Amino acid sequence: MPKEKIRIALFGSFYRGYYVLDELLHGPLKDCFSVVGVATDDVTQSFISGKARVWQYSHLPSEETMVERRAQQHGIAVYKGRVKCELFYEMYETVWRPDLCVSATFGQRIDARLFSFPELGFFNIHPCINDGWPSRYAGPNPFKALLDDGHDHAKAALHRIDEGFDTGELLAMSGRIAMPPNATVIDMHKITSPMFARFAITELVKLSKVRA
After folding, report:
1. Averages of pLDDT over each 10 residues, the chain, 212 residues
2. Is residue 7 within 8 Å of 208, Cβ to Cβ?
3. Can you give the pLDDT at residue 2?
4. Domain range summary for the chain, segments of one domain joined by +
5. How far apart are CA 174 and CA 195, in angstroms?
């Protein structure tokens, strides 16, 4: 375990964001982390590209705010505005001061000022299959693409965020999770999120030990 807790910020929403946050707060590696802030989607705003992502599908109002409410229950700062602006940069760099960041279903692109700041890196959890990296399933709606192509399983890539779109250095690939017949995009978010969260947090702790 690292000598000091890793200051981590989560950029996430919906089930993947929720389960990553829960893993950081209550999982077996919780003592490795201090969650310094959560940025999450405000589905009323056009800048999250909701029509191209999971929010285009039928969902409950409570699912829009599940990450926000979970963070607030634990006294964690929540941000729902644009992340590419001076207001957020100032808070991110002087108040949150993350050592590490992870993105888990987040509706805004991360720019160089954000992904270059954390000493340990800024990573994303992206559904795909093991088809080489970068995967052909890069993009805002990977489960839809996997289902359309008839795949019977999904994996998660944990990759570094860079200037590209789901193209940064691959850190690790998860095990497979079966996609049941007639599964929907929403089903797959629900089915995969607990495993994807545990996988990602485990790999990020391994990374921190290497860098320590």
Report:
1. 82 98 98 97 93 93 97 98 98 98 97 98 97 94 96 97 92 97 97 98 90 53
2. no
3. 46
4. 6-125+158-172+192-211
5. 9
Residue 162 neighbours by CB distance under 10 Å:
16
CB-count exposure of residue 42 (10 Å: 0-12, 13-18, 19+): middle
Q: Which fold has domain 6-125+158-172+192-211?
A: Rossmann fold (3.40.50)
What's the 3-state SS for the chain?
Answer: CCCCCEEEEEEECHHHHHHHHHHHHHCCCHHHEEEEEEECCCCCCHHHCHHHCHHHCCCCHHHHCHHHHHHHHCCCCEECCCCCCHHHHHHHHHHHCCCEEEEECCCCCCCHHHHCCCCCCEEEEEEECCCCCCCCCCCCCHHHHHHHCCCCEEEEEEEECCCCCCCCCEEEECCCEECCCCCCHHHHHHHHHHHHHHHHHHHHHHHHHHHC
What is the chain's alpha carbon radius of gyration, rounded to the nearest angstrom?
16
The pLDDT of residue 3 is 66
What does pTM read for this prediction? 0.96
Let me know: does 108 contact 82? Beta carbons within 8 Å. Answer: yes
- Size of the chain, expressed as the number of residues it contains: 212
Q: Which pLDDT does position 185 carry in this prediction?
A: 97
